[in-house]
Design goal:
By secondary structure, the chain is α/β, with parallel strands linked by helices. The protein has helices at residues 21-30, 37-47, 62-76, 93-107, 123-132, 141-150, 166-171, 175-183, 200-209, 243-254, 266-278, 292-303, 337-344, 365-375, 387-405, 415-424, 427-445, 474-483, and strands at 52-55, 86-89, 114-117, 136-139, 160-163, 190-195, 214-217, 231-237, 259-262, 283-286, 309-312, 327-330, 354-360, 380-382. It has three domains: 35-217, 3-Layer(aba) Sandwich (Rossmann fold); 231-386 and 468-483, 3-Layer(aba) Sandwich (Rossmann fold); 389-445, no CATH class. Helix content is 43%, strand content 13%. The protein is elongated, with a radius of gyration of 27 Å. Mean pLDDT is 81; it is low at 1-11, 223-229 and 446-490.
C-alpha cells in the first residue's frame, strides 16, 4: 500500500529571519527545526529596531520571538556595561525564571549576562549581581520597582523593554508599577509588548509608551467541533530528572501495541531513542534532521510492526495514520495546545480508542490548563504508578493470558504431561509452577520479546537512594535531564 503521509519538514527556517550565525548555531545545537508563526513575523521586525505589539497566546513561541532579536542587538553593540541594557517584565516569578533561563541559553555563546529578579528571593544576591554588571534583567514588576526605589538598580542604560503577558500583569494589579518603571527608562528605547488579549487598557499602554509600533496578531489554529479523537488522556507530574524512570514504568504498565513518544527537540529524540534501545526496546528516531528516505523507512518499519516505539519531534504530529498505534506519550508537554491536539490525533482514529500520556514538570501545570481550555477536554492528573502497581499489572496480564489459553483447541496435547506431573505432585502446585514460568517469561522477555522487566516491588527506601526502573533507567535519568533543553517558544 502506498504511504500517503505528507513529507516531513526538514527546513530549519531560522536562517531566513536574519539571525546572527552564532544564534543559528545555538538553535541547531539545541535541535530546533522551524520557527513558529509569531517568530517568523516578529523577529525581522524587532531586528530592525521597530517597536512591536504582538497578540499571541501563551505557548505560541513568544519567548524566542523577543529574546533572539534582543540578544542579537545587544551583541551587535559590542559593549559590555555595568548598567543593564534590556529589561523584561513578566507577571510571575515562575515565568521570570523560565524566561531568564531561555535568554541565558540562547545568549551564552554571545556572552550575554542575564539576571532574574523576583520576590521571595533575598535582595543581597540580586544587588551583588547588579553591581557586577548584567546585560538583561528579567523581573516581576513589584521586585523591579523595589530595586528602582532603593537605588540598587538604575534603568538609565536601558535600550530595550519587553512587556510579556501584559494582560496578566494588569490582571494582577501591576499597572501603576509598570507605568513607574517605564518612566524611569530612556525615551529612546525599543519596546516590545506581548499579550494574549488586546483589551482597551493594553492598547492604552501601547499608545502611551510605544513609538509607531508594528502590530501582529497570531490567531490560534481552529480545532473543528468533534475533531478530537476518542483518547484517554492522562498526565503525570514528574520532575525532569525522573522522567526516564517514569517512562519506563508507564511502558511496563501500559504495554502499548506500538507508540509514538514526542519530544521537543531532535537532540532529545536521538538521546531518548538510544536509551530505549539500550533497554531492548525496538525504538526508532523520527525528526526533521533526517532526510525524506530515512523518515519513510522509519514509518514503514512502524507500520510493518518492525518497530514498537518511535521517538519523534512534532514533524510526526501530522499526517501519520498507523492502524495499530495504541499510545501517544508526550515526554515533553507541547508548548502550544494545537501541537497537543495534533499529537494525540495519531491515536483514536476511525472510531478506535487510544491512550495519550503526558509527563509534565511541576511548573508546567499552566501549559496543561491552556491545553484543557483550548481543547475543552479534561486531562486527568494521576499519580505515577509504583513498582507494586506495575507488578500487579503484569500478574493481571498473566491471568488474562491463561484465560485466553483456556479456550484453545489444542489443550489435549498437553494432557499426558499434566497427568504425569500430577502423579508425583499436587495438581494445584503444578498449576502454580506453570503460572510462575509464564509470568517470569513475560517479565524477562517483555510482551514484545525483548524488553527487560521492571524490578519486583521492594520495601520503601531512603529518599536519597533513587529508585531504578527496568535495566537501570534511574542511573541515567539525571544526566539526560541536564542535557535536555526547552523549546524556544516556551
Amino acid at each position: 500500500m502506498t504511504d500517503k503521509s505528507p513529507p516531513l519538514s526538514n527546513n530549519l527556517g531560522f536562517a531566513a529571519l536574519g539571525l546572527d550565525k552564532r544564534l543559528l548555531e545555538v538553535l541547531t545545537s539545541l535541535g530546533y527545526e522551524e520557527p513558529t508563526p509569531i517568530q517568523k513575523e516578529a523577529i525581522p521586525i524587532l531586528l530592525s529596531g521597530r517597536d512591536l505589539v504582538g497578540q499571541a497566546a501563551t505557548g505560541t513561541g513568544k519567548t524566542a520571538a523577543f529574546a533572539l532579536p534582543l540578544i542579537q542587538r545587544l551583541a551587535e553593540s559590542k559593549v559590555q556595561k555595568i548598567l543593564p541594557r534590556a529589561l523584561i517584565l513578566l507577571p510571575t516569578r515562575e515565568l521570570a525564571m523560565q524566561v531568564a533561563e531561555a535568554v541565558h541559553r540562547y545568549g551564552r555563546e554571545l556572552n550575554i549576562r542575564v539576571l532574574p529578579i523576583y520576590g521571595g528571593q533575598a535582595y543581597e544576591p540580586q544587588i551583588r549581581s547588579l553591581q557586577r554588571g548584567v546585560d538583561v534583567v528579567v523581573a516581576t514588576p513589584g521586585r523591579a520597582l523595589d530595586h528602582l526605589r532603593r537605588g540598587t538598580m538604575k534603568l538609565t542604560g536601558i535600550t530595550t523593554v519587553v512587556l510579556d503577558e501584559a494582560d496578566e500583569m494588569l490582571d494582577l494589579g501591576f499597572l501603576e508599577d509598570i507605568e513607574e518603571i517605564l518612566k524611569a527608562t530612556p525615551s529612546e528605547r525599543q519596546v516590545m509588548l506581548f499579550s494574549a488579549t488586546m483589551a482597551p487598557r493594553i492598547a492604552a499602554i501601547a499608545k502611551r509608551h510605544l513609538n509607531d509600533p508594528v502590530r501582529i496578531n497570531i490567531e490560534r489554529e481552529k480545532v473543528a467541533a468533534g475533531a478530537s479523537p476518542r483518547v484517554r488522556q492522562t498526565a503525570y507530574i514528574v520532575p525532569r530528572a525522573h522522567k526516564l524512570e517514569a517512562l519506563g514504568r508507564l511502558l511496563d504498565l501500559e504495554d502499548p501495541t506500538s507508540a509514538i513518544i514526542f519530544c521537543r527537540t531532535r537532540t532529545e529524540v536521538d538521546e531518548l531513542t538510544e536509551v530505549l534501545r539500550a533497554h531492548s526496546y525496538r525504538a526508532e528516531s523520527l525528526h526533521g534532521g533526517m532526510n525524506q528516505s530515512q523518515r519513510e523507512r522509519v514509518i514503514k518499519r512502524l507500520k510493518a510492526g518492525q518497530a514498537d516505539l518511535v521517538v519523534a519531534t512534532d514533524v510526526a504530529a501530522r499526517g501519520l495514520d498507523i492502524d495499530h498505534l495504541s499510545h501517544v506519550i508526550n515526554f515533553d508537554v507541547p508548548s502550544a495546545p494545537e501541537a497537543y491536539v495534533h499529537r494525540i490525533g495519531r491515536v483514536g482514529r476511525a472510531g478506535r480508542e487510544g491512550v495519550a500520556l503526558t509527563l509534565a514538570q511541576p511548573r508546567e501545570h499552566r501549559l496543561l490548563s491552556n491545553i484543557e481550555r483550548i481543547t475543552k477536554q479534561k486531562i486527568n492528573i494521576s499519580k505515577l504508578p509504583s513498582y507494586a502497581d506495575v507488578a500487579a499489572r503484569k500478574l493481571e496480564q498473566t491471568k488474562q493470558d491463561v484465560q485466553e489459553s483456556l479456550s484453545a483447541t489444542d489443550l489435549d496435547r498437553y494432557r499426558p504431561l499434566v497427568e504425569s506431573l500430577a502423579n508425583d505432585n499436587d495438581i494445584f502446585q503444578v498449576a502454580l509452577a506453570a503460572l510462575r514460568l509464564l509470568h517470569i517469561s513475560n517479565e524477562t522477555q517483555g510482551r514484545k520479546g525483548g524488553a527487560s522487566a521492571a524490578p519486583s516491588p521492594e520495601p520503601e527506601r531512603p529518599r536519597q537512594q533513587q529508585e531504578r526502573p527496568r535495566g537501570g533507567y534511574g542511573e541515567r535519568s539525571q544526566g539526560h535531564g541536564e542535557r535536555s533543553r526547552n523549546n524556544p517558544g516556551y
